[in-house]
Amino acid sequence: MSSVLLAEDEFLIRAVLVDALEDLGVACIEAPTGREALEIVQGPTPLAAIVVDIGLPDMSGEKIIEAAAKYRPDVPIIRCSGADGPGSIADVRVHSFPKPYSPTELSQFIASLIASGS
Q: Within 10 Å of residue 115's Cβ, how many Cβ atoms?
């Protein structure tokens, strides 16, 4: 079974979203730093989706998205940001989800992406 990579530095946000996803039967791999997220994106672990907070403390989430576009071309990416504006990559697989978001709405969106195979 593949999992969702959750690159989010805020512990409480991460914990709530993990719980919401688990309630929908979706497993999460948590990455509180960009470095950890990059290792997972570049590694062999199967991923069904990648959720990236743009404001990670050690690097921009945009770098994670760029790596995901290169190493995981078939995996949908959800870009989470409180700032307006497009991301660095214009790609149909990159979905924007503005912060603050409802964990329930985001987890349902992720589950629907996984179910549709997008």
A: 11
Q: Do the Cβ atoms of 52 and 77 come closer than 8 Å?
A: yes
* Residue given tokens 């997220």 in the structure block: 37
The helix/strand/coil state of 51 is strand
pLDDT tens digits, 1-26:
579 999 999 999 999 999 999 998 99
Taking the C-alpha atoms of residue 102 and residue 6, their distance in angstroms, rounded to an integer, is 15
Domain ranges of the chain: 1-82
pTM of the shown model: 0.90
Question: Beta partners for 28?
Answer: 4
**Cβ(76)–Cβ(113) below 8 Å:** yes
Which 8-state DSSP code applies to residue 24? Answer: T
Question: The tokens of 59 are what?
Answer: 């690097």
Fold assignment, 1-82? Rossmann fold (3.40.50)
